[in-house]
Design a protein that fits this description.
The complex is a heterodimer of chains A (86) and B (365). By secondary structure, chain A is of the alpha+beta class. Chain A is built from 3 helices and 5 strands; from the N terminus they run ββββαααβ. Chain B is α/β, with parallel strands linked by helices. The radius of gyration of chain B is 20 Å and the shape is globular. Chain B contains 15 helices and 9 strands. In chain B, β5 (148-154), α7 and β6 form a beta-alpha-beta unit. The N and C termini of chain B lie far apart (42 Å). Chain B has a 9-stranded mixed beta sheet, with helices on one face. Chain B has helices at 32-35, 40-53, 71-81, 96-105, 119-126, 131-143, 162-172, 186-190, 192-195, 199-216, 276-282, 284-287, 307-310, 315-322, 338-344; strands at 7-13, 57-62, 84-89, 109-113, 148-154, 176-181, 221-224, 245-248, 254-255. Classes of the chains: A alpha+beta (86), B alpha/beta (365). Chain A binds chain B through residues 7-9, 11, 13, 15, 17-18, 22, 24-29, 78-80, and chain B through 4, 6, 51-54, 56-57, 59, 82, 84, 86, 108-109, 111, 145-147, 149, 175-176, 218, 221.
Chain lengths: 86, 365
């Protein structure tokens, strides 16, 4: 995975009724915890995994989040929700 | 607290250029009541109220939703309300121009039905010449970067072409292929003998799906569910009565499922007179079979403890096969009426189709 982006037709949204982030896909809803939502917001097809990890790291006092980001993106890619922009 | 709905199924119009005999719409679609369709404002308000209730997914269906002249406005309203919208269409009216307008308005996803991967057979089942237009519609959807689902309702007259169908979905670039086995309501119930597949056909179909999944991987998500009539335990119909979904008929009446209007004595409230919140929380239609309190034996003391797994199965099926909408779904092997499901699996002589029509139908009862 070089430059991850959401699969065509997936939409990231905040559900203010249930107070949680969701990924909306054809006839489905994936509920996201706040950190997953933060990662997905950065999966724009431009940033690399390292770019995403650095951006998040800067938000959280330099914590090393590379493994967490990679794990999450791989899991979502396995479900076909994230694809490589290439 | 009550569960919140996540899906709104908006049946915009029961009019349709196709005449599919497997249609689950009511037999009386041509009746005066359904011709009094909701106006644009009613639908837009319903979308906003649905979002406030918790709905995230909107299915724009029918009949043929593209027959509504205000579809672009409705898609824009759905997006403004924060709903993810799917257009469930036969595709014959999905021209490049209209597809483009829908894309700009914010439509999220397009599902196109195909009756068979064989052109002549498709047109015979649909009751009109539509195959070429459907393929063109699928290509427009791809060109405009819509996620595309191909849907095919399966039955004994098209199940043997499943491999061809899988290849067609791949060739069209579909992200999803929904292989929906016929549900015997409305027109489909009138055509049950012409549509009921054999167990052998289903077995071969399932194997073909399995081979395709192994070969193609997650590129095409193939949805395949064994039809109810060949099961021994019921499915949680609609995810449970009044638990996850609302269906709004063209005249604005709100139902817990698409076939609920067949249940006599059930009182439906409409969005012209009531808020969606009241309908979800209080209306007779939504409260009658919600939860587990209404259950009779054998559900009440289910030997498998499945009351909150399958929620008693399908109420409309219980009515049709057991004569009582509050009975156990006869698909269940513990139902005293399960023999009627077993009997329906026997191969019946092929009957000619009764085609769906808005005109006064002649239907055997």
């Amino acid at each position: 995975m070089t430059r991850p982006r959401l699969v065509t037709g997936a939409r990231l949204q905040y559900d203010d009724v249930r107070s949680e982030h969701v990924l909306l896909i054809p006839e489905g809803v994936v509920r996201l915890n706040p950190s997953a939502a933060e990662v997905l917001e950065l999966c724009d097809g431009e940033r690399s995994l390292d770019d995403i990890a650095s951006a998040l790291s800067a938000r959280y006092d330099g914590a090393d989040v590379r493994d967490d980001v990679r794990e999450l993106v791989d899991a979502l890619a396995g479900k076909g929700l994230v694809v490589d922009a290439l | 607290m009550l569960s919140r709905p996540s899906t709104l199924i908006a049946e915009l119009s029961y009019q349709c250029p196709l005449h599919c005999p497997y249609c689950s719409n009511p037999l009386d679609i041509g009746g005066e009541r359904y011709r009094r369709e909701l106006d644009t404002e009613d639908w837009l308000r319903t979308f906003r109220e649905a979002r406030q209730l918790g709905v995230l997914q909107l299915a724009l269906t029918g009949g043929e939703p593209m027959l509504r002249g205000d579809l672009v406005e409705l898609c824009a309203g759905a997006r403004d309300a924060g709903l993810y919208s799917s257009l469930i269409t036969a595709g014959t009216l999905f021209t490049r121009e209209r597809a483009h307008a829908l894309k700009l308005a914010g439509l999220d996803h397009v599902q196109i039905s195909i009756q068979s991967p064989d052109p002549e057979e498709n047109d015979r089942i649909a009751g009109n010449r539509s195959f070429a237009k459907k393929l063109a519609a699928a290509r427009h959807a791809k060109e405009l970067d819509f996620p595309l689902t191909i849907n095919c309702v399966l039955h004994r007259q098209n199940l043997d072409r499943i491999e061809q169908l899988l290849e067609l979905a791949l060739e069209l670039g579909a992200q999803r292929l929904e292989l929906a086995n016929t549900q015997y309501y409305g027109w489909a119930a009138a055509n049950q003998d012409a549509l009921m597949p054999s167990r052998e056909q289903l077995r071969r179909g399932e194997e073909a799906v399995q081979r395709f999944r192994e070969r193609v991987g997650p590129k095409v998500d193939v949805l395949w569910v064994l039809p109810d009539f060949f099961e021994e335990l019921p499915k949680p119909c609609m995810g449970g009565w009044g638990r996850t979904a609302l269906v709004v008929a063209p005249d604005g009446e709100v139902m817990p499922c698409q076939a609920a209007a067949t249940i006599p004595g059930l009182e439906f409230a409409g969005v012209r007179d009531h808020s969606l919140e009241w309908i979800w929380n209080e209306s007779d239609a939504f409260t009658r079979f919600r939860g587990t309190e209404w259950m009779q034996e054998p559900c009440r003391t289910c030997p498998l403890g499945r009351q909150e797994v399958d929620w008693g199965g399908c109420r409309c099926q219980a009515l049709r096969l057991a004569g009582d909408a509050a009975a156990a779904d006869p698909v269940c092997r513990f139902s005293p009426h399960h023999d009627r499901v077993v009997h329906a699996r026997e191969p019946a002589p092929a009957e000619p189709f009764v085609y769906r029509t808005m005109k006064r139908p002649r239907v055997r009862t």
